[in-house]
Amino acid sequence: MNQDPRLGLPSASSFGLDALCSGRQDLLQSLPDVPEPKDEDAERGTKLHACWEKEDPTGLDSEDTEIYERGLKLVKTVLDDWLNPFPRGGQIQVKEGEREQRFYLRDESGSIVASGQADRHWYSNTVHEKREGLLLDFKSLWCKSLTPAELNWQLLLLAVQLYQEYELTHVRCALAKPMFNKLDIVDYNADDLKQAEYAVNQVLWSIKHTPQRRPGAHCRHCKGATACPEAKAWTLLPSVQSGALGRVTPAMAVDFVETMHLKDCVKIWESATSRHNIEDAIQDRLKRLSLGELAELGLTFGEPKVNTPITDVEGCCNFLTRSGIHPHELYAALKLTKGDLTHVIQCKFGLTKKAAEQWIKDKLTPFMTDKPCERPLVKI
Fold first, then answer.
1. In angstroms, how far is CA 74 from the centroid of its own chain?
2. Is residue 99 classed as helix, strand or coil in its secondary structure?
3. Closest by Cα among 137, 132, 155 to 84
4. Which helix (H) or strand (E) holds 36?
5. Which of these, 212, 199, 209, lies nearest to 163 by C-alpha position?
6. Which of 70, 209, 337, 354 could share a disulfide with 178, CB 3.0–4.6 Å?
7. What is the pTM of this model?
8. pLDDT tens, 110-126?
9. Is domain 12-209 classified as CATH 3.30.450.20?
């Protein structure tokens, strides 16, 4: 089995999550190997990255081939712009590093404490006083929630790793987004790199010494969320649920519930009726608001649904019979509800409701079929 190149340590791709939740790494270490979530977009992204690494689009469909070509054009744009200030000739040389190279960050004792993988990187191989580096990370598809380069922890950690690896004084980092045909660039000068190094060490120190789990919107991107009590509690907050429509799918809900403590499951089950009563009361209150008040909350009234039940059953049956439908054929479409039938029996025989229900039970049992329901949960 291949060893995890991350060595079970923080990595650049998820370092933003570690910065927001210092207890995340401890939780992941306590779990069996948790695979990264896979979906169609993730598989497409992996395939595109492999093609960019080799600069060979073989196997891509026409849509992804276009994305691939846009990505290479963005590489040329950012590289040409970065190279432009360098003097031609002389002692300054620029080299491209290994593609998809993983860099390892070490502490003062030499122990590896984090890693990061650079899709592309270049550096000036010189003893010149200004030693520069360029790092590019492909974001292959939509990446709409991507943190801007200037605030991006992945780029910050990679910049620090590049700075340490090649003893650089300036690092330019670029996010290449071929789906939008855009580049997002941030520059780190010598002072910035020292500050970035300090920030990275602060995050690593917090992970080691104050591993506190802090739930929030970032939990949606954490592969340990389904096993995290804090993430589950946060997800169940009404304010979170109201903003998560279309995000918490039935499959996601199953994953959350399967890893919840059983006592928590019981507590939530017990409160179901209370929650429904509260939801009904909330809906009633909101419906009493004026259109202006609703608009301030981002709500309005939709078009009412119009039901069209058949209320003249006798007239309808007579019409259908005259149309050639035999009464026996109609029976499959007709249902007698016990509630309505109880009212008929009450009126016909002058019985109380309880007596009418008993009459139905005594007289009509031969016409009934037992249909067992699923066993309900009850308190002991």
1. 28
2. coil
3. 132
4. none
5. 199
6. 70
7. 0.63
8. 899 999 999 999 998 76
9. no
